[in-house]
Amino acid sequence: MYRGALSLISNYGGDSSDEEIPNGRVSVKRCASEEDVSNKRLPVPDIICRDVKYDVPIDDPSIHNGRIRSFPHERGNWATYVYIPYEPNESCINDLVEHLISGLSQFSFHAMDNFHISLTRTVILKHHWIELFIKSVREKLSSFRRFVIVFDSLKVYCNEERTRTFLAIRIGSGYDTLTKLIESLDNCLAEFHLPPFYTEPSFHMSVAWCVGDYEREVNEVLPNLNTIFQQLFLNQVQSNWYNHVTYIGCKCGNKKFTFNLT
């Protein structure tokens, strides 16, 4: 069967012969009329059509602790967000998260994979936009100086789709600089007709999450969780709760970019 298909391909590629000019090395294709072309063009063999397959990524929530994508995966679309990384002492945060999750045993909470403060929503960039977007962000952030963020207390959040609940640490200081960063980044997003950040942002760093909308239920036990937080806060070195922001990060699909502050 495959030999027959290859024979058809051979016929398909050789239906117009070259005519050589006598005593010369220049060859030219003979001009075929539209009628000749339409009559002699052979269809692609069915066996080749059947053998062509395209891999389409399948979103399986079971391998992501039940998480569901906010955006369906499409080739050429890159999920992108800009953020401030947390760097002082991850072991301190990991210890805090462990205690907080134990206080939420009635829910299936998980620790966040990485700790950061979001400065944009997660938006979709076309592949050919990435270079221009990164250039725009770099230009907008070039005038910002390093600053310090201080963490405050716990708060509960839900994503826009109400499919996940988050436990987060609110930001207690650094709001002025954060607000100016948001304004600059919103201008970058507008250049690509992408949605801006939230109108009344509540700056925070998510530390744990669970599948489903449990905002009301977690808020009921939030006072107890804040007690745990305050106890650990007092027992830790205070500098662990200060985040000295020296650069801004951007994650675009599997690519990471950094923008150093002056």
UniProtKB/TrEMBL annotation:
The enzyme's first-digit EC class, named in words, is: hydrolase
Provide the catalytic activity annotation: a 3'-end uridylyl-uridine-RNA = a 3'-end 2',3'-cyclophospho-uridine-RNA + uridine
Active site: residue positions = 116, 204
Q: What is its EC number?
A: 3.1.4.-
KW Hydrolase (keyword) present? yes
Alphabetically, the GO molecular function entries are: lyase activity; poly(U)-specific exoribonuclease activity, producing 3' uridine cyclic phosphate ends
Give any single GO term for biological process.
Answer: U6 snRNA 3'-end processing
Function, as annotated = Phosphodiesterase responsible for the U6 snRNA 3' end processing. Acts as an exoribonuclease (RNase) responsible for trimming the poly(U) tract of the last nucleotides in the pre-U6 snRNA molecule, leading to the formation of mature U6 snRNA.
UniProt similarity note: Belongs to the 2H phosphoesterase superfamily. USB1 family.
Q: Which PANTHER family match?
A: U6 SNRNA PHOSPHODIESTERASE 1
Name of the molecule in the record: U6 snRNA phosphodiesterase
